[in-house]
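Hi Y.,

Following your request, here is the sequence exactly as I used it, all 390 residues.
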Amino acid sequence: MPGRVLIVLPTLEAGGAERFNVELAAALRRKGWDSTIFCLNKRGALLERAVEAGVPVVAGSRYRGTSVVRLALSLIVGLPRLWKLIRRNDATIAGLEGVVTVLAVPLTILARRPLIAEVQVDLDGKFARPGWIWRVLAAASRRCYPRCSRVVAISEGTAASVARIGADVPVTVIPMAVNAERTEELAGPRPPADEVPTVVAVGRLMRQKSFDLLIRAHARARESEPHRLVIIGEGVERGTLESLAEELGVADTVAMPGFSANPYPAMRSASALCLSSRYEGMPTVILEALALGCPVIATDCSEGVRFALADGEHGALVEADDPEALAAALVAHLQDPSALRIKAAAAVAGVRTDRSFDATADRYLELIRHALARSATVRLRPSKGEIAGA
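Below is the corresponding structure, written out as tokens. Let me know if you'd prefer a different format.
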């Protein structure tokens, strides 16, 4: 019998995990389940997509400001609302590592509701970032994951990272899904090829995505192969990246148009999509590019990336944090695009059939039903006092 599922996220900013959970919520609703998204802070470009998909979004708060202030105010206002929603729903999904998982665990325990915690990136990479907050979150996560009804990771490598941070808990692997039909529809028809090839990258302008390395690789590759670089996204590193492009003399060939809710026309027309990250889980953008038949060049920064590219059968893998290696891969592709085009074309059918959100929703519902059955068994188990008084 269908029930109610709550998905908890920090915001609806345009990240892979947020996009995944919006599409998962929509797929759950198509299967008759009443899914709702709770955001600590109701902001982000994916809010429009959630509304379009018919998924209700409840805000913890609308506070803005610096990240620390916004988080503090969001928690003060949002926790009572989150508590009420957890009690109102049959099961909860923590849609991101870190804060939302650490918050959801004690609340679901108190409410006696099952919790499924998602792991979308390699945790040791995420928690290795500088700053005390990441050390605190790593320690808290070690304690929280064993208290979840189920932990779900998007790849075997991401699953292994749970143990690497010291959490001894079984992990279920459910690979990242992609809404191939919607991606195809939004991309539109393939335009005529440009005279000058364009390499596209998509993601937040943040350290994890390593766009500084990509700009350096672009500058090196341009010495032998003219091309443009378009980085679609917004974030805190914009100023730094713009200064780097100026310093390297490539400001006129590097475009950063900002966030786009629909990057797919640019991906469809690109000579290649390039992922330059320092660490990842299983990037949605790779699957979306392959669904469009767009060649992919990616840093070998996680098992999820290797899995998405079938260990190099569906795209080019290069050493992470190595601008020379990335530049060489760009030059090789620009000189002979046919090799990666063939690899991308071979991946299209598998991405469109094997990575559907309906299939992924079925896997989640199987876990939810099992967790609900276990929860009901625990609730029905008599206490010691009841046994003694019998």
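The longest helix spans residues 357-380.

Thanks again,
Q.
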